[in-house]
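Section 3.1 - Work completed
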Amino acid sequence: MTRGLGAPGTAAVQQEVVTRTTAVELLFASGSVRLNGGFIPLTIGGEAFEAVGLLGTITVVGEVAELQSAGITVTLAGVPRDAVAIAMAEPYQGRAATVWEVLLDGDNGSIIEAVVIFRGRMDQMNIRLGETATVEVTLEDRLTDMDRPALRRYTREDQQRQYPGDRGFDFVPAVVERDIIWPSRSFKG
């Protein structure tokens, strides 16, 4: 798939051997976690992505013809216990997450091109404890929001939460039980 690739990336994927890795950015309230599946740190868009090597996995990002939600799972093994405590206390649901496919130069490991392949939000975090911990974060794409009900009540209080000072719903209770005759009797048209 060459969609979104520039000329250097297109040339790289047409080679007999393609060197690539995946990078993930998880935006927590306390700061960002940026990791890549390679063995050397990478810089994408001016941000440093720490190398996790064989300690991390990302499920395959697929495409479907239908309009449906798809998610992926990012797993990091070998997490120290003190980092697990931070992960357990950190609010994460609904926070932004981005995944890149990174094409690398096979000779020196420099980035040829990085393409966003998934953009969504963190959904669930599963933590398995042992000698070292495994942290598994499920990411959902933005289409998942289509399945969520809209929680607007169209009341004065709801309007004030959304738009403080707006008086658009102040007069709704006064007209609920009112008989409205249209056109009015005084209308001379």
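Second construct:
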Amino acid sequence: MPVSVSVGPFAVIDAGVKIGEGCVIGPHVHLTGETKLGKRNIIHGGAVIGDAPQDLNYKGEPTRLRIGDDNIFREHVTLHRSNSLEEDTIIGSHNFFMADSHVGHNAVVGDHTILANGALVGGHAVIGDGVFLSSNCGIHQFVRIGTLAMMQGNSGVSQDVPPFTMVVFGMNKMCGLNTVGLRRAGFTSEQRSELKACYKRVFMEGGNIGQVVKQALEESPGEKAQEMLEFIAASTRGVCSHASRKR
């Protein structure tokens, strides 16, 4: 362990854990499993990082959790290692996990995401860069959340959330684009206008979504609109629908 690492009282660090330079481990933290932390991660009191997956088929294999740099894990955050040797649970860099948030086994979390208090990410889920999950959101296993998407508090999804969109309270319902997030990320007015038109065409004008997306992709959309369309086209679980549209 590098000499620059700070470890608080009553913390437990098991043998398989590797900790990068500048990390701060708070009191009563438990780091376990084959867990590797990058540099300058801050872990607050009571967090449990790298414990066994909550999977009845798991048989005690030395599975892994990989964490990048400059993350903040607040009180009682839980991150579970993967359930098989073929995959890792992966956490990127510059993320903020607020108190009591959870990431399940084999999940992948990108960079610059925020998980507010009590946000729950199921196993095998994929969380894109810049995603904001508000308090008490629920993400079903295997769901994908696209880049810069946002979920309002107490909302839940069992279907994929396209990039740049906003999920509202309830289940699998969107209300449009994450406009504030797009502005903060430096999207131009032209990019935002194209995304708005793309969202309206796919989710609000009716018709078969698969056919609409295919036709829109054939029209050489801009980079960001193409990212949204390709995400939808690649979905195997289906995507969330606009709140006013009958499912």
